[in-house]
Amino acid sequence: MPETKKIKINTEYIKLDQLLKFAGLTMTGGEAKTAVASGSVMVNGAPCLLRGKKIRAGDTVSYNGVVIEVISQ
């Protein structure tokens, strides 16, 4: 079963590449960009190639065996 992390945001949204870095799944923004471009990042169960995709509370992001649940403050 994949590891699940709950990440709180206190803004309307966070961009996908920023979320990957903020959650500690990538070390740098460049690494996040590469991960998204490779097609290995899933948003709400579907592959996402848009690193600037707006992720809002209620969305889930999966990468490298970790599922991030985005929740609001």
From TrEMBL:
Listed GO molecular functions?
RNA binding
Top-rank taxon:
Bacteria
| Statement: the UniProt record of this protein carries the keyword Acyltransferase | no
Gene3D superfamilies, alphabetized: RNA-binding S4 domain
Query: Which keywords has UniProt assigned to this entry?
Result: RNA-binding
Q: Which residues form the signal peptide?
A: none
Q: Give the RNA-binding S4 domain ranges.
A: 14-72
Among Pfam families, the record links this protein to: S4_2
Name by which UniProt lists this protein: RNA-binding S4 domain-containing protein
Please give the organism. [Clostridium] cellulosi
